[in-house]
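User: Here's a structure from my thesis project, written as structure tokens. My advisor, Dr. K., wants to see whether a designed sequence matches the one we expressed. Can you design one independently, without my sequence as a hint?
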């Protein structure tokens, strides 16, 4: 009988306290989680954030000079990244033209002098990263990659004249670190030429690979 009386008395005190408690306080107690996580904010070191937008690099490959055989080509590039998708690229390349089939068959006939066979191009291009992704070397090593399209215009010094040139192509970039990348690329160079007779559009294909550094 005594236990029952204590139970009724305690329930009465609880109900009285609940009626006297403000509604906002009860809602706040109900919304409070039973277990509060122990979260410690981690300070951010701004010096560790990668902010490099410029990229400088060198490349080497092969260039097929229409009517003048294939040649080793090499050069350099300077790139400015406008965003994660778009970038500007300024490039220069050097090669040396070979002999035409006519020169080989005719013997001592020379269509171009030695100086005129020097092939130099300059261009400014706009690139677009189409497919950013990752390349996995092993289960523990992955590298960021970009497949990009690029096109632009410039000039080509060849055969004793400077020729307006349009180029277009594609490339594949693998970032080895935050500041070093490897490139594989294919370009087509278009310009007008009339060295062997009537004027025509010369289409020269370039395949190259290179290494670049961000700064």
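Assistant: Designed independently from the structure alone:
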């Amino acid at each position: 009988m005594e236990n029952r009386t204590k139970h009724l008395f305690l329930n009465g005190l609880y109900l009285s306290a609940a009626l006297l408690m403000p509604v906002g306080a009860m809602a706040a107690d109900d919304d409070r989680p039973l277990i509060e996580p122990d979260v410690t904010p981690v300070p951010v070191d701004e010096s560790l954030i990668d902010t490099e937008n410029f990229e400088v690099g060198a490349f080497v490959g092969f260039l097929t000079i229409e009517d003048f055989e294939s040649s080793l080509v090499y050069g350099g590039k300077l790139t400015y990244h406008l965003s994660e998708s778009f970038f500007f690229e300024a490039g220069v390349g050097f090669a040396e033209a070979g002999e035409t089939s006519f020169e080989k068959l005719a013997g001592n006939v020379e269509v171009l002098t030695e100086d005129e066979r020097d092939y130099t191009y300059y261009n400014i291009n706009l690139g677009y990263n189409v497919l950013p992704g990752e390349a996995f070397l092993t289960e523990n090593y992955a590298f960021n990659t970009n497949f990009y399209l690029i096109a632009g215009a410039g000039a080509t010094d060849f055969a004793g004249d400077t020729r307006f040139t349009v180029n277009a192509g594609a490339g594949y970039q693998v970032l080895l670190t935050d500041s070093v990348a490897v490139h594989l690329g294919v370009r087509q160079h278009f310009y007008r030429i009339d060295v062997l007779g009537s004027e025509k559009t010369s289409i020269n294909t370039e395949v190259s690979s290179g290494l670049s550094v961000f700064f």
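When you compare it with your expressed construct, this may help: The chain has three helices and eight strands.
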